[in-house]
Design goal:
The protein has helices spanning 25-38, 61-71, 83-88, 90-101, 111-119, and strands at 3-7, 10-14, 42-46, 75-79, 105-108. It is of the alpha/beta class. The protein has one domain (3-108). The mean pLDDT is 96.
Length: 120
Amino acid sequence: MSALRTIHDVPVLMCPPEGETIRDERDVLDLIGDASYQGAQWVVIPVERLDGSFFALHTRVAGEIVQKFANYRMGLVVLGDVTRHMAASPALRDFVRESNRGWQTWFLNDTEELHDRLQG
C-alpha cells in the first residue's frame, strides 16, 4: 500500500517494492490519480516495480510514463540501483543523467538521496 509522506514540506507518495508491475502509461494512471487525491507532488516508484521494458528506451515505455507524470505536473522518482541497466545502454545512461539535472524525473539510489534533493 502506497503511503503519503512529507519530506521537507513536500508531499511524496511512496510506493512499496511489492505490488503490481508497472508496464506502461496506463498502469501509472491509477497511481497518479491516487497521488493527486492525496495531494502528493512526487511519486516514488522502486526499481523492482518497473517492467524491464522501462529501461529499454527503444520501447518508449520510459518516455510515455515520464510524459504522463509531466502532463499531470507531478514529479517521478525511480528509486533504487539502475547501474546494470545503464551499463547495458548508453542511451539510458544519458537519459538518467539528463533527468537528474532537472526537476521532473529523478533516478535516485535511496531515500537519503531523495531527502537531500527535496531539501533544495
